[in-house]
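Hi support team,

I'm filing this because I wasn't sure whether my run with alpha-L-rhamnopyranose finished correctly. The job status page said complete, but I'd like someone to confirm that the output block is well-formed before I use it downstream. Pasting the exact inputs I used:
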Amino acid sequence: MRKSSIRRTCAALAAVTSLALAATACGGTTKEDVKDEGGKAAAAGKADPNAETKKGLTVGFLPKQVNNPYFTVADKGGEKALKELGSSYKEVGTSSGTDTAGQVSYVNTLTQQQVDAMAVSAQDPGALCTALKQAMKNDIKIVTYDSDTNPDCRNAFISQASADDIGRTQVQQMAEQIGNKGEIAILSAAQTATNQNAWIEIMKDELKDPKYKDVKLVKVAYGDDDAQKSFQQTQGLLQEHPNLKGIISPTTVGIKAAAQYLSGSKYKGKVKLTGLGTPNDMRKYVKNGTVEAFELWDPAKLGELAARTAVALASGQITGKEGETFTAGAMGEYTIGKDGVINLGKPTVFTADNVDQFNF
Ligand code: RAM
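And here is everything the job wrote out:
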């Protein structure tokens, strides 16, 4: 075979099969060849908490949606942490929150580029699995953050807070604001979003408590984390349900659009709105009386923890098994929980009293 056709065959092999395999068959150097002791222990399935933190790694961030201010802040947190750790950051992603095929192709691109780890926020739990498993076969560590895939398709999931904490508190806040009585609706993101769907299930469960017997969930609408669609969905909810007393929107894009609609309408202050928003987006709606309280975590910390977990995995300090611990820089020590889940902490509730203390 002539050299050029060997090269072509190798490139084709790399595109369809395990990159490590293709590189070996074609005489290339794989990441296996350059692995240190910590890496070997991890490859054997064992964590070595004393392994040195590797430098010079590349971690690719694939958010649910680029240009969403929430992910801009989260990914910046990841970038800053990687810089501190002496590793590199790159970000790829789709501008729509419902472009699952686009996300799959970005996973494949990062695999072909042989990054050391990926931090992925999944638009759909199952859709990325095949591509992520292929990446893991190529010794690329996978961390999901914000929105998970299935546990066997990644090494660890960085959860912003427990789904229980996030789901129940939103219902509690809404019920309090409407005096435990009346029709409510949910304005979510994409219909497939793992995180929002997990929180909605918990909200429904919370609503089963007899103390909410007079609170009725009449509809779950989807704004796809698209500002215009979320705005229109809010308008639609109020037209369809004239007795609506409140909207819970567990998405930063949704709550902002709903607040925008309500604050310019006759419903301002009458139809209550709570959910998950950034203080910078929501400040003006708190001040003008559209919103009393909403919550969130610090997205930059979520991104930082995703980056530090990715590096700990790639360094062999952890493998993603329950009970393993590692130090995430100044953020302190974290323990991996059931199904490889690492919890960032508890969400913060923002009201007129504290919203000015936060800048994200
Ligand atoms: C949006 C996204 C993200 C979610 C936040 C609260 O930005 O849907 O996944 O965690 O809202």
